[in-house]
Amino acid sequence: MKDLEVSNLEMSNQKACKSIDTIDVMRISQELIVKNRTVYKHLAADIPVQQILDEIIPQLIKLYKGHVIQIVQFKNDLAYINLAVLFDDSYTLTMHQSKIGKSRKLMRAINDKYGSATITIINCRYNDVHDSKKNSTHLYKARSGNVIWTRKETEENNHE
Predict the structure, then answer these.
(1) Rounded mean pLDDT of 41-55?
(2) Is residue 71 within 8 Å of residue 84, measured between CB atoms?
(3) Residues 76-106 pLDDT 10s
């Protein structure tokens, strides 16, 4: 009788382990699919990074007028293309609040066109990025990236 109980218990444990393993595998698989879906889409779609940059940079410069000093591209898991727009000191919080909706609309348009999480844009003050005493996640990201656009001297006086 004891042998039968032990045998039934072992079979029960094996079934439980098998079902747990299957469920775990399915869960992990689903998590990986969701996590990598954007990467797969970008690989399959062969996202044209330079085309997107050529499309978005002039729009950002136009939106923010002459306040943009630099645009930096940085690596991050936020999106396929991550940009930091660096502003001069004349760019105020009030200006930013009036423009943030339009900036998000530009970002959404790119993401709708090429796939979710294609691009993300953060904003920082140029002087804060270059001040080693100031620290934040956004500043670190901007510092770690590569400058892909810089305002020319002749463009400096094009403020709103």
Answers:
(1) 76
(2) yes
(3) 887 889 999 999 999 999 999 999 999 999 9
Task: Give 72's contacts (C-beta < 8 A, 6+ positions apart).
Answer: 83, 84, 86, 129, 142, 145, 146, 147, 148
**C-alpha dihedral, 42 to 43 to 47 to 53, nearest 10°:** 80
pLDDT digits (tens, 9 = 90+) for 3-40: 555 555 555 555 555 555 777 767 776 766 665 565 55
Give, as one character, the DSSP assignment of residue 88.
P
What is the rounded average pLDDT of the residues 29-56? 70
The single-letter DSSP state of residue 155 is: G
CA distance 124 to 137: 11
Rounded CA-CA distance 76/68 in Å is 22
Q: What are the structure tokens assigned to 93, written together? A: 């919080």
Closest CA to 85 of 160, 155, 141: 141
Rounded to an integer, what distance in angstroms lies between the CA atom of residue 134 and that of residue 143? Answer: 11
Task: Name residue 62's amino acid.
Answer: K
| Biggest CA pair distance of the chain | 94
